[in-house]
Amino acid sequence: MSRLRLAVVGAGHLGRIHARLASASPELQLTAVVDTVEATREAVAREFNAQPLADYRDLFGQVDAAVVATPTSTHFSVVNELLRGGVHVLVEKPITVDVDEADQLVRLARQGQLVLQVGHVERFNPALSAVEDKLYDPKFIEARRLSGYTFRSTDVGVVLDLMIHDIDVVLNLAQSPVDRVEALGVSVLGDHEDMVNARLHFASGCVADLTASRVSYVNQRSMQVFTSQCCATIDFAARRASLVRPSEAVLDRSFRAEALSPDEQLHLREHFFTELLQKQDLPAQEVNAIEAEHLDFAAAIRTGVQPRVTGGDGRDALAVAELILDRIATHQWDGLSDGRRGPLIVPESPTILGPADRWSLDDTVIIRRKAG
User: Fold this and answer.
1) Are 19 and 33 a contacting pair, CB within 8 Å?
2) Contact by Cβ (8 Å): 341, 331
3) In a 3-state reduction of DSSP, which class is residue 108?
């Protein structure tokens, strides 16, 4: 069976990774590298033995599929034209910057019977794959995604840059509509938010706390998922996962700590995670997540089955991201309708508080609460 002819559109950091892996794929033939910067496209194309092109429109009739790794603000225009030209598309996350645009792309792909896959690559992370089938009906999820500032994806904030990964994973696990969103965010280096905390409430009763920062001195990509039967800890960065399952006595509520003798208490202190909450480290396969993503993309094109992350999945993650961004934009930092709001918490000029605006201090600290 011949390999699918593939182009990589956008030869920056991530595009170069796609080009390298596609050039070695048994399913894909890297045909072209497209970038508006001549030196960039020439260098990547030469390294991986592909044709350098300045305009993605020159791909029509020359390729079967394309990976789009251009800046987020260009996703809609590029993917729209590729789909109209009959090209299957794997577009990096987020699918677009606007849900209406995402809806248009999903409809266009469906009408043309084309694969539209979104690059939420954590779905292919072996740590998640090791535990995903054991996480039925989650009730609480906590995700932390922290990194230093990379000077990439500066056209969007941390919600669309990093948190979107966890939004997609959480939606896939919860399998329930989002009822309510709470969020706040802080801009540190520009106009976009760089640190965000969000809480999602689902119709199923599940609650998810998501924290993302791209100005952190700590690097972390982790998630804990609690169900009525187990708790999973997922380290996306280290590609490791562990599972904690309560014993039968804990699950059926028959365990009574107060009824234990001192000797039994001492024993269980030493064997807590082998007898009461039984911890198991799960083996994760050594796979490259982007390579697995490519293989899934190729299989979807050849067989007509849905890819693991569809255009609709990317659209839904973006819709929740928009809700989070809306809550960030309307958050009031002073509790005043005319006070500071949104991610810019530092006032443009110093604010001098009058006596009525200060906390009252006597034997205790009284914090005045205001509606808003």
Assistant:
1) yes
2) yes
3) helix
Which residue, 112, 111, 83, 113, is CA-closest to 96? 83
Q: For residues 318 and 312, give the distance between their C-alpha atoms in angstroms, rounded to a whole number.
A: 10
Task: Spell out the residues 6+ positions from residue 160 whose beta carbon is closer than 8 angstroms to its own.
Answer: 72, 93, 94, 97, 153, 318, 321
State both tokens at 32: 């072209």
pLDDT-wise least confident of 134-143, 286-295, 299-308, 331-340: 331-340
Strand 51-53 to strand 28-34: parallel, antiparallel, or no bridges (unpaired)? parallel
Q: Which string of DSSP letters, residue by residue, matches 326-345?
A: HHHHH-BSSS-TTS-BTT--
User: Is residue 11 within 8 Å of 41, Cβ to Cβ?
Assistant: yes
Distance between CA atoms of residues 203 and 228, nearest Å: 17
Query: In terms of C-beta density within 10 A (0-12 exposed, 13-18 middle, 19 or more buried), how is residue 248 classed?
Result: exposed
DSSP codes joined into one string, 264-297: HHHHHHHTIIIIIEEEEEEP-----HHHHHHHHH
Could you tell me the CATH superfamily of domain 4-120+289-310?
Answer: NAD(P)-binding Rossmann-like Domain (3.40.50.720)
List alpha helices for the chain, DSSP H.
13-23, 38-47, 75-84, 99-111, 126-131, 158, 164-174, 248-251, 262-270, 289-303, 311-330
3-class SS shares of the chain: helix, strand, coil, % to 5: 40, 25, 40
**0.85 exceeded by pTM:** yes
| 228-268: pLDDT as tens digits | 999 999 999 999 999 999 999 888 899 898 899 999 899 99
Provide the residue type at 329 as one letter. Answer: A
d(CA 149, CA 30): 31
What is the domain partition of the chain in residue ranges?
4-120+289-310, 243-277
